[in-house]
Amino acid sequence: MNRFIILVISALGSAPMLSQAIDVDAAAQTSAARIAVGTCAGCHGASGVSTMPKFPVLAAQRSTYLVDQLKAFKSKTRGDPDALAFMQGIAASLDDAQIAGLAQYYSSQHAHSGAGVAVDSAAATRGREIYENGIESQNVPGCSSCHGSKAEGKVEGPRLAGQHSQYFFSQMTSYRLSLRDAAAMHEIAVALKPSDIEDLAAYIGSR
Amino acid sequence: MVDVNFSMGQGAAVRSTVRGLVLPALAGALLFSTQSFAVPSFARQTGMSCEACHTVYPELTHFGRMFKANGYLLTSLPQVRGETTTKEERLSLNQIPPLSMMVQISDTQLSRSVPDSSGVGIAQNGSVAFPQQISLFYAGKIAPHLGVFGQLTYGNDSGTLQIDNTDIRFADVLVLPEARSLIYGLSLNNNPTVQDLWNTTPAFGFPYAASNATVSPLAATAIDGTFGQSVAGLSAYAFWNESLYAEVGVYRSALQGYANPVTGAAGPLDGSATNVVSGVAPYWRAAYEYNWDRHSLEVGVYGATFKVFPGGSTADKPAPLQGATNRFQDVAEDVQYQFLGESHIFTAAATRIHESQSLDASFLNGASANPRDELTTFRLTGTYYYQRTIGGTAMYFSTTGSEDAGLYAAGSAPGVVTSVNGRPDTKGWITELDYLPWLNVKLQLQYTKYTKFNGGGNNYDGFGRNASDNNSLYILGWLAY
Hints:
The complex is a heterodimer. Chain A is mostly helical.
């Protein structure tokens, strides 16, 4: 089987498949809002739109992805540098109800648009080509198959539209170094050149 | 407690000297005014690395400021819990106490040694401090909405273990419409500005560590560490949407090591005590912070008004705590800019404190030459770090004020901390290089250069000592674990 196709299937297979809505009661919603606004806001912004590009935009992110990541932080299976420095500690005391509440809180916030963000337009154009069609010569599939044609996220992959370029680049580096537990993304990150990732980061940051 | 503070005008150890004239007995208390530090207690409690809350310790990032405003409550530690049948939380206690230690080891070299106290010869130059200071911290959550920063310190100058900076906080947060936040709380603390969130105010300002074996100038404003550890303050604060901060509070004397001569007990204070605040001293603070991209900008104002009884009764000169007082009204402005890049970190900070002094008590007893004086302190600091590993800071400092031959008196013999022209003016620079092989270990090389000292550049004491003679080189190893 073509390695390109294997990567797509692999990516699909390793993605979180929890597509159902998360059931969060009113008390958990209130608790989550307090945590989000009182604590998480310091880095991610009160409505999930971080100002510092080091920290990801969470607004309108898929709730299942957020649950998976918070649990990965809590179980220390996500080990990129900022996970170690920040999120493993933050997530350690969260229970399942709080995790679900936080996921719902951020997923229900208004999506952040990268339109107007200053990026290298030539890089963004190259990044769009990679995003939509991949790079067959490097066995890299198009990102849209998992992350949606508008980078809005799908069952198979998180929302990327409007994400900070710096954060995107640092996470692709983490995938490449296997600091995040995602075999398919590791394969893709290894296959991409740094310049490809920069192009993708420019495109995603401008979405 | 030692003075890890300042070797110059801001130096609590020497602020006392000025107050020693205006407020004759504050000296002992002032010796122990110290900085508040970043402590591994918080890292142990939160499970987060130092860099979450600090650019390089002890300077706070925006997240660090939020952690403090929220009462030091964020914890990743297992809790001992207690709940009522209605799920009301009655206990939430860290199973492992967030304790930590700090050790500072130093060496200080003066440009020119000071006269021997016997009047013959000179003192040995090159002061090794092993340790300069050892502190034990309990810092973190103690109840669902209650947290504490507590510090006990052994200092080589006092030779004893004493209470140091303490900040006990109640804090909670309201979620307002449109995901706005309102953090509100109370701080019970023992050093005006120790509860503040920015590194521009005196308790947290640069230099974060300095020698306690140098010559310090005479003058400092009241809010500039003068009352550290000798007062208790209660303040209420609100922080809206992580941007607009307001705080009001009061401070009242709470002396350490005092015994009433009549009762033999720790109180009540009478004229045997010195520099006792009359009633309570109001404290206020307002600041606005704006964060964008990798940048953070804060502008603010703060101040306090202390009415103080000089006290210090002697057998032939009673000084009961009544009648005339000295009034120190401090109004200050501050500004801070931080750039937090992945590799490069830069901070610029400045503060200006203006003090109006109404010296009714001191003028009456002859301790001051004027009934009214002014004093202004200004500091401008720039700090750069590369990958939180190597960096440095440069600071310009200046204290200027009214000529007052009573407050800033000449000596009859070489005294080093005197002023031949009765002026408080002290100016100079501090340059510091820092290397952090690990995030909790700092090796520091600091040079303090005076261009003016106690009113003069040359022969400021009338016995041939120049301001530059008090320049100092300070080498410090600072371990936090």
